[in-house]
Design brief:
Elements: H1 11-19, H2 30-48, E1 57-58, E2 60-63, E3 97-100, E4 102-106, E5 112-116, E6 118-122, E7 125-134, H3 145-158, E8 176-182, E9 191-196, H4 200-219, H5 227-231, H6 245-253
Parallel strand pairs: 7-8
Antiparallel strand pairs: 1-6, 2-3, 4-5, 6-7, 8-9
Helix pairs in contact: 1-4
Bound molecules: zinc ion.
Zinc ion binds near residues 66, 89, 90 and 92.
Length: about 260
Amino acid sequence: MRISELGTFCPREYAIGFLTDTTKEDFTNFPLQQQFDLGSALHWWIQNKSKAFKDIIVGNWKCIACNKLISDSNGNPYFGPKPKENCNHCGAKPTAIEYNEFYFRIDEPYRVTGKIDLVLNKDDVHRFGDIKSYANKPEGGFPNGKDVTQIAGYAFFYNYVPEAQKFPVPIDTDYVYLHYISKKFSYRESILTYPIKPSKLMIDEITKRVSEFTEATKTGKIPKPFEPCVKSNFSKGKAKSCGLSETCKEWHNNGRTNI
Ligand SMILES: [Zn+2]
């Protein structure tokens, strides 16, 4: 389960896909892909170029000339603000050094993968940040519920990453930051930052759905379909973008509950 899909994923779709070894085919049209790619470019710009964050962004850094992580004097991956010296492996200039997003994958007790956009260090307190780009502010304003769920998920699941793979500094996962960057010009709102305190309610909801999926991968017991899917006879809401709605519907109709 990708944590980036935490706010929208269906445990039943994932479980059926996993247990029947079915890969979802997903097509993105060109204009939408262009928006996604521009979003990725802004993402990169925050991590590597934005003056707003400067030395507050810390983490591991990679040289794109030799493709190696910059190391510290002990030979371990260097952790800190963007290096100001040349690559210690090949001598490439600091302009060739880029932020290396932290990737993790755990199988127990939850089967999840995630990528951390940012580690921010303010007064020696380290916290995670997530970057979202937007063209128009949603009517309900920021932060958006889906994004809050996602960042709360990163903070929560990081605690299950094996110690040896964690960052070399303690991370305060009680608070996380959501950064919204505008694709349009704005004097006042070029980057909006929201501190988020994941609540117990939020975490319970997240773990419930991830547990259903994790359990299914082990026991073959398929989670129940979403109520709106059943009510609309699998034609509305989540069912519209579901890769397995036909199978989901069929199995629901003939009462199949496990594989
Ligand atoms: Zn290098």
